[in-house]
Amino acid sequence: MLFLDECGVKPNHDLVFLVIWELRDQWKLAYLLFRWCEKCKCLDENTWCLMIWILGNRAKFSSAWSLIRDRIQMSTNVQEAVLIMIDRYAAANNSGKAIQTFQILEKCSMSPDQRTLLTFLNILCKHGFIEEAEEFMLVNKKLFPLEVDGFNIILNGWCNIVVDIFEAKRIWREMSKCCIEPNGTSYAHMISCFSKVRNLFDSLRLYDEMQKRGWVPGLEVYNALIYVLTCENCVKEALKIIDKMKHMGLRPDSSTYNLMVCPLCESSMLGEARSILALMEEDNISPTIETYHAFLASVSLEATVEVLNTMRKAGVGPNRGTLLLVLDRFMKLKQPENALKMWVEMKQYEVVPESAHYSLLVGGLLEHRLFSKARELYAEMKSNGIDDPSLQKFFQPTGSRGQGDVSNPEHTRKGKLVKHGRHKVVRSEKYRR
């Protein structure tokens, strides 16, 4: 920083923000630069909030609070900064601190309003603290009167974040007890949840009830119906929903068609899935990597190569996630030879394997007693600077008989290898069935 002082550099607010953002993974450097810029008086509120977020990400909460105290002494509104702290506490799995921090707002002479409460509830639910959010809302109903928006945030947590239909139904009943009338958003959340658990009857029932009460379904509702109809083998009815969407001026997107392609591929209805893919392309909607991954989870080795070529031509992969999906599938099908073929094939697509790929492939080869190939790939893995401690114990120096370096392969009940004699592999009960 002495060098910067001597150069007489005084960057503008935007440049400071961008540089600190680039240093977000190196919090010490970011903090050092922040303090220098503070001395130069070239910080705005956005940069202060960014620095607090970076410190919170690294669990440096004391340092973050020191910045907030500095802002309070400057008679500056710190509500946004406090909400960031709440979000970081929740992300760190500390809901108690998050709730305490919200209560600090009053002590800072910033009485939180209904909008701030909704933001707080949304933060808790986003990080999985749905019960805590609901309890806080109900306990503080005298200070913050119960409204449909608050219930919708809790409902969204149970319906779309956790997907617990029983809790979602309970909140729906609780709304009725509190004389809170559900709105279009409430219905959308519930229909989405019923769809995800493949409950066609209740999805359609709420859809009809929603329309009778004057709420206009949006893209989320129609997508949910398309998915559950396809899952229940009502493909024609799902296509009719797409036609209805177009008639109403709602444009189906890639997500809409993927909600048909994915369950069809899961059910091995590849012909129907290809027909949907053709309709998708007719509507000038480009397939996404999710679309192709759905096919890869179901097709043969030859068809896998075809899908990979199509992905490359379309410019949507394949990527490391694709390789992991393909390797995992062939190993589960007990086809290690095909997994090895795809390992070689992927190099043509410039996919660089990571630790997860090597671990999956080497572990699968050991499981199928292909010790020589497993040893070869493990050596390649080590030469690339990658190691997996869980595999180390299976590779030991060559014995006096020169029988390779795989010693005492194992299997556990979770599908990993367990010690059972010398050079023998047995399966747990799970794998005998």
UniProtKB/TrEMBL annotation:
Top-level division of the source organism's lineage: Eukaryota
MF-aspect GO terms: mRNA binding
Pfam families the record matches: PPR, PPR_2
PPR repeat start-end pairs: 183-217, 218-252, 253-287, 354-388
InterPro entries, alphabetized: PPR_rpt (IPR002885), TPR-like_helical_dom_sf (IPR011990)
Entry keywords, A to Z: Repeat
Gene3D superfamilies on file: Tetratricopeptide repeat domain
Region (Disordered): 393-433
Compositional bias annotation for Basic residues: 413-425
Protein family: Belongs to the PPR family. P subfamily.
Protein name according to UniProt: Pentatricopeptide repeat-containing protein, mitochondrial
Organism per entry: Capsicum annuum
